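User: Hey, quick favor. My workstation is busy. Could you predict this chain's structure for me?
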Amino acid sequence: MVRIDSCRSTARWPFGPFRPSLLVAVTVAACGGADGRDLASRTVAWLQSATDGGAYAPPGTPPDLAIAGYAKVLCSAVFVSGRDVDEAARNSGFFFLAEADRDRVTDITVDRDGKLVRMTWADSITRTAKFYSDQGCVIHPVGEDSVHFAPVVVETSLPDAMTQEWPMGDVEPDGPPPEIDSVKLAAAVDAAFADPEALTAAFLVAYRGRIIAERYGQGADKDTQLESWSMGKSLTATLLGLLVREGELSLDDPAPVSVWREDGDPRGAIEVQDLLRMSSGLRFIAPRDPDYTPDKGYPDHMYIYTGAIDAFAHSYTRPVQFPPNTEGRYRNSDPLTIGHIIKQIVTGRGEEYLTFPQTALFDKIGIRRQVLEPDPYGNFLLTGYDYGTARNWARLGLLHLWDGVWLGERLLPEGWVEFVTSPAPAWSQPVYGGFFWLNGIGEWNLPDDAYFMAGGGGQRTFVVPSLDLVVVRMGHFRGSAAGMATLNVALEKLVAAIDGAR
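Assistant: No problem, here it is.
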């Protein structure tokens, strides 16, 4: 049972069958210990052990960092997505902790007046994340109770969505077009929700620009801001595309990072397009590296989420590991460096960085609210800390389906969509483009020309030019494996429904 009043939420709950390793009862109360209790001694011990082994060791122990990330995800689930505390703690954010550490979460505080979440591990480490309105939730650095940027209000210039037709608004015709086999279409939607363990929260199909199927689960609806994770990388590419069209930079420019421009810096050879293709060659420890092993240390790939650091600076200050455009690696350093470049251009023009996506892109394509969360220094963490509705992601899919032209207005440069959806030459397989994934090896039951935005926990936005199709699937992280299996079945049935209309 959960009791909520103006100051606190109180609950005791076993995770039971959802998390066999986490059987501890957790008390949720509105009182919490200080951040970083005994942090210094634990940090020294961790640093010493890691340094002795030659591994990378950022400040803080793995549990310190993990519990900070967990608190942030729970904060966003509650205050951004409106999810139940118990459900969100069970199904999102748990993965930051190693399996052996998950049963040592001993306290969770959800302060609804202060709009913050505190999580405690092993009765010794407490970390805090706080909700900053339109900037979503942000982890507080150890020993601090605020952030290093001034939060701003992000307002849309668009009228109420129910006063405009889709895709600029939410008014749409009733039912699918008559040429679509409604029985087959319904079977595809049913398949997306067939396995309860998939935790599917949204499934949306847009055909020829029109929504022909849409269903929600897990308490979500068309207005729910859902965890989107690395689909934000594709958004980063889109924001950069706006600046390229404005003439601010070109794909083959040396990346305009000031410290790389110093004489003799080997990073000076990295071009903008190398970063977009995740082929910069920066040394950035990532679990998806083919040669990754835990003895290499705490992954940079995760540190930018959990460290409460300046994630942009951490990324662009990494040394070179490979010559640019010779090795494709899925590493957060590259989209975060692109994020740094975007911020430098926008602020250099005297514009407000935190409202730039809304004014430059979202208002133009019918998106009234999309929660983009920054690090404590005000840098968007679009590698993963972003929240959007299924309809928002469908609109971004349509922008690319329509080659960067929205209702007659070109927003992205000619050839931009072709670039981000062409195989990156440094990758060993044709699976990655420019912050978009490709169906180049037939992983998905879709035509070969399909490409997609992909986020952890089973977030996908597919664009299929040959079928004039956009498909969005979103869900909660614990259901990822089951969700991807049900999604592929749903896609096969959907293609059958679409093919019958062609």
